[in-house]
Design goal:
The chain is an alpha+beta fold. The chain is built from 20 helices and 33 strands. Strands 1, 4, 5, 6, 7, 8, 9, 10 and 11 form a 9-stranded mixed sheet that branches. Strands 12, 13, 14, 15, 16, 17, 25, 26 and 29 form a 9-stranded mixed sheet that branches. Helix 5 runs antiparallel to helix 7 and helix 15 packs across helix 16 (571-582). The longest helix is centred in the C-terminal third of the chain and has 21 residues, at 621-641. The N and C termini lie far apart (52 Å).
């Protein structure tokens, strides 16, 4: 994938395991007979060498080889309780995990790509040279698992047999990480050799929480070695920094799509969900949104769903775009999850019979979890991410401490949800017709608009703008969020963008499967449209209508109004769909507020993108041509009609 000539593979250099026989000798030293038998069922020499080298580096007290059996999963759950990485809650199968108070999101300031001076790395990322990284790993991870149990898991990111799945090792001393992996990923111990041989690669993830102390957080690091597809993570506990099967390996999958399978495959930060249309047909959607911007809500709005966070997609032999979810579970934000907006998810969270790991919510005296926005009665006291909590408590700056952290999560298996589709395990993927892009935009874009062609669709993805959320430590304000994937694009942004244009514009996609590409925006406020309230101009449940309109658009069953930024719905169609889909009256007044184009804001948004991308090297000219064309058309409309254009004016 990337040239590794003359580069040092850090784990091999530190572990110095040069052969399969050397690896076996290490296993015999650290494993009992049971686990030695388990590891030797894995035959691939490179897999065995990397595991053995990790053992030599971290020097655990003992090694547990996880086969994914029910007994192994129970061992991990029990050990998590014994280590106090998790605690039992009132509902059977539910546990609580608390991250360190100062580590409530991704530590973006301490996350690095290992890169040589000549390597192209995203301008939005940190880089560390290989010699420095080697010494950082040596000094921080040598003997880090002394007196601990190392857990080795064999997973596949996607269904077994899919051409875009990725085998991955998760090597950790954290039982919380190992437990989470069992809920979020497919354990592929029995198929690992076969999949590595078929796909020609595997990812390696090495993590230890160390002593799990706040004072160690300044020394915490997440290092990603793209050339050898290996992550190193230490002295941290939040899953986004430790369960590198997730966003760490997503970065490697992006690399694979851009540099090995250019124009044929994509790895995206997208949900996959299915919407029912006429005669109960299912139309599959994939959609990008930054974490904390409603992606899980949108996924669950589908009549059937496959995933809420990540998607691997490719152009199949039949000329369609196919998508699979590399995960089989949800690591979802719970703030504002409630019975009205998320009934199916709430059923799992509040009714017995499901396994759930909670993180950073409030636990009351009865060992029941509570969180901001659940629309339930809140307790007067309890324990949360910062310690003991009571109603009215403030921090050192006098700011109220909320019941739960904004990035509080619940981790659960997708098959706990009633609308989970068995299509998720189909290695041939879901035939995907609609792609959406959204962020937290309070004052500019309408709730839904559709690109006129695939190039303009790519530009919608490239131009996501969003208010920052609590998923990244120390990040504030409004920022650009290209494809909601920018933090996970390892290489040059120009290469990723070029791959997007080539993929969606490929002549291998048949006409009947040409993608519908659209923008979504749930966060338009009343204040931004002439009102006085900061409240949203809509409700969570409206998402079902926007998706249903797009479903009918994809099948050429609905009309639209043409605008310079794309095609928008007509009022009569939305009025009918609101009544049909969610039994809600949709007024013309609300429609006009939501779908009028506030030209000054949109033009300013375009200029923001033009200025930002002009500072990047090698960005495809197509993006600038499209933005320039849209800006000129909007300026012409402003000269003719003023700065606010209602849908009625646009339709003429």
């Amino acid at each position: 994938m990337l040239n590794t000539d003359n580069d040092i593979d850090i784990i091999n250099e530190l572990g110095k395991v040069n052969s399969k026989e050397n690896a076996k000798a290490v296993f015999k030293q650290y494993m009992d007979d049971e686990h030695l038998t388990r590891i030797l069922k894995i035959k691939h020499p490179e897999v065995l060498k990397r595991i053995a080298a990790s053992i030599v580096l971290c020097n655990p007290f003992k090694v547990f080889v996880n086969t994914g059996s029910s007994e192994d999963r129970q061992f991990i759950r029990t050990l998590a309780l014994e280590k106090k990485e998790e605690s039992s809650l009132a509902m059977e199968g539910h546990t609580i995990h608390f991250d360190l108070a100062d580590e409530q999101g991704r530590i973006v300031d301490r996350t690095y790509y290992i890169a040589n001076p000549e390597d192209l790395v995203s301008s939005l990322a940190n880089r560390m040279d290989r010699p420095t990284a080697l010494e950082q790993v040596r000094s921080n991870m040598t003997d880090i698992m002394k007196d601990m149990t190392m857990i080795i898991g064999f997973y596949i990111r996607g269904p077994v047999g899919s051409p875009v799945s990725n085998p991955a090792l998760e090597i950790t001393s954290s039982t919380y990480v190992a437990h989470s992996a069992e809920l979020l990923y497919r354990n592929a111990y029995a198929d690992f050799d076969k999949e590595v041989e078929a796909l020609g690669h595997f990812f390696t993830n090495i993590h230890s929480e160390g002593l799990n102390r706040t004072q160690d957080l300044p020394d915490a690091r997440v290092l990603m070695d793209r050339k050898f597809m290996t992550t190193y993570s230490w002295k941290c506990t939040y899953a986004g920094n430790t369960l590198l099967l997730k966003k760490g390996n997503h970065r490697f999958a992006v690399d694979k799509a851009v540099y090995r399978n250019f124009g044929k495959e994509l790895s995206e930060h997208m949900f996959i969900t299915g919407i029912h249309g006429l005669n109960n047909r299912v139309t599959w959607f994939a959609g990008a949104a930054p974490s904390g911007c409603g992606k899980t809500t949108t996924a669950m709005a589908g009549n059937v769903f496959i995933g809420d966070d990540l998607a691997q997609m490719w152009i199949a032999d039949d000329g369609s775009i196919r998508s699979v979810n590399p995960e089989c579970g949800i690591f979802g934000i719970v703030e504002d999850v409630n019975l009205e907006g998320d009934p199916m998810l709430m059923k799992v969270l509040r009714q017995p019979g499901h396994e759930v790991i909670w993180s950073n919510v409030l636990i009351d005296e009865n060992k029941v979890p509570h969180w901001v926005g659940n629309n339930e009665d809140q307790p007067d006291k309890g324990f949360n991410f910062q310690g003991d909590w009571y109603k009215g408590q403030t921090d050192k700056n006098g700011k109220p401490i909320p019941v739960s952290h904004p990035n509080s999560r619940s981790t659960l298996s997708c098959d706990s949800l009633e609308n989970y589709s068995q299509q998720a395990e189909n290695p041939e993927g879901a035939l995907t017709r609609v792609f959406t892009y959204s962020g937290r935009d309070a004052d500019t874009m309408p709730p839904v608009w559709v690109a006129k062609n695939s190039d303009e669709g790519v530009v919608i993805g490239a131009c996501i703008v969003s208010a920052s959320t609590a998923t990244e430590v120390g990040v504030t304000g409004v920022k650009r969020a290209p494809w909601a994937n920018a933090p996970f694009i390892p290489g040059a942004l120009k290469d990723y963008m070029d791959a997007q244009f080539k993929f969606f514009g490929s002549d291998k996609i048949k006409d009947e499967y040409k993608p519908v590409m659209a923008g979504l925006n749930y966060f338009l406020s009343d204040k931004a449209r002439g009102g006085k309230s900061p409240k949203l101009l809509g409700e969570k449940k409206d998402v079902k209508v926007w998706l249903s309109w797009l479903e009918r658009y994809a099948h050429n069953e609905i009309d639209y109004i043409v605008t310079p930024i794309g095609n928008i719905p007509r009022y009569d169609d939305l009025k009918s769909l609101f009544k049909q889909i969610i039994d809600k009256e949709y007024t013309k007044e609300l429609y006009t507020k939501q779908f009028s184009l506030y030209l000054d804001n949109i033009i300013k948004r375009i200029e923001l993108q033009q200025d930002a991308y002009a500072k990047e090297q090698g960005i495809p000219q197509t993006l600038f041509d499209i933005l320039d064309k849209q800006k000129k058309a909007l300026l012409a409309l402003k000269d003719a009609h003023g700065s606010i254009l209602s849908p009625e004016v646009l339709s003429k």
